[in-house]
Amino acid sequence: MLLRAIDISKSYDGVQALRGASFELRAGEVHALVGENGAGKTTLIKIITGAVDPDTGQIEVDGQPIHDNSPARAKAAGIAAIYQQPSLFPELSVVENISLGQERSGSFGVVNWKQRRARAERLLQEVGAHIDVDAEAGELSMPQQQLMEIARALGAQARVLIMDEPTASLTEEETQNLYRVIGKLREQGVGIIYISHRLAELSVIADRVTVLRDGQVIATREMAEVDQPELIRLMVGRELSTVFPKREVTPGEPALELRGLSDSANGLADINLLIRAGEIVGLAGLVGAGRTQLARAVFGLNPATQGEILLSGNSVRIKSPADAIAAGIAYVPEDRRRHGVILDMAISANITLAMLRKLARNGSFDFRRETEVSADYIQKFAIKTPATFSHVGTLSGGNQQKVALSRWLATKPSVLILDEPTQGIDVGAKSEIHALMGELASQGMAILMISSELPEILGMSDRVAVMRSGTIAGVVERAVATQEKILALAL
Q1: What confidence tens digit (pLDDT) does each residue in 338-358 have?
Q2: 54 Cβ partners below 8 Å, 6+ apart?
Q3: pLDDT tens digits for 16-36?
Q4: Angle at the Cα of 360 (from 357 to 366), degrees rounded to 5?
Q5: Angle at which helices 172-187 and 142-155 cross, to 10°
Q6: At what angle do helices 113-126 and 142-155 cross, to 10 degrees?
Q7: What's the pTM?
Q8: Domain holding 393: CATH number?
Q9: Does residue 88 sit within a domain?
Q10: Which is higher by pLDDT, 278 or 340?
Q11: H or E segment at 96?
Q12: Domain total for the chain?
């Protein structure tokens, strides 16, 4: 056996993250690790990589225990991880990020940049990434950053490779490239721990699957012997009737209208779109089509240079996020860890961050009201945390997304823009967020939902607007929307 995690237990602030969990990985195997957010997957991975010490249990590689595990010891044992949120230095170049910690300088401390650049280009080519190795890492898109992380892990020649949601930000073509790389690693005897909430892909890529629930291992099965409904039942402990609990809501008056919105600097051209009160409009399109740029323009992060924005029929000027918030627009961005929440701040501070003026009275801050507001949303959205003052960074991805949503819903918006609202979260949390969207729409909120998952687009949208090359290529009604029609417009 290549890797064993034996009887691992860990608790945080009174919350038991793992309870006697055991996990095995064979050489040349892709072993999927699944479970709802908060099930203990991240904690187990952190313990395997030496980032966190377990309360009990041990890690073995090739039958040899790793005593006092640490990131350095795990790396020396051949363990590497690719996390869902890329861990890179944004101000450094791609070649510097890939080379960091993997190469030594030559004679007299001189760095052989030609050699490093050639090596980085080769590794990127292996994962099918077309990226300028001299570009700043922070300038790359999320999919490009993810591919760069994979290339860096390949360069480390890991024997145990952990992939945490590796396809969450990738296109279909990039995903197929990743599968090819995984197949090559498998042939070389590398063991891969594959964490994904996209259950459909597990039957394609995984040999075995282990299910975690509430910190315990519920089952380990051969992938060929378990189907998706059974996996969902094991993960959530119940039958999940539907992941897309769409409510039928009669749309009201126009809430948000875009007329001729254009911005050549951000690739937007003549966008016309209408969203009514109580309506969920899905925004589909390929990566790079301009969906996020449109959301940022409407929210005032990158104001459009031409065109008009109307709210409830009235033309408004939105030149900044403050203007958007004042007008009743809220925006939950795609990258929740960088732009959606502040990890080192308390949950209560995160939830109330967009409504600070309402909590200030006569020059003083109403901390009691802050606690009341945050406690209300923690209860309403079932955010798993021991206290309102816990840091958001201690929460699972699904719970972090709920905090991000809570912040903007606390401003009482009339228009809500959601950019990849369920990316990287489990089926149970997806169902909860979809149900919340349906509840908000029934209350008259207009929702623009950007998603790369076509089942989500089809399952939750009243209408689907498809972007291509920075403009709206077409709008499809729910009753006649199909994956084929959406892809035809996107392409």
Answers
A1: 777 888 888 988 888 888 888
A2: 8, 9, 10, 18, 47
A3: 889 999 999 999 999 999 987
A4: 130
A5: 10
A6: 110
A7: 0.60
A8: 3.40.50.300
A9: yes
A10: 278
A11: helix 94-99
A12: 2
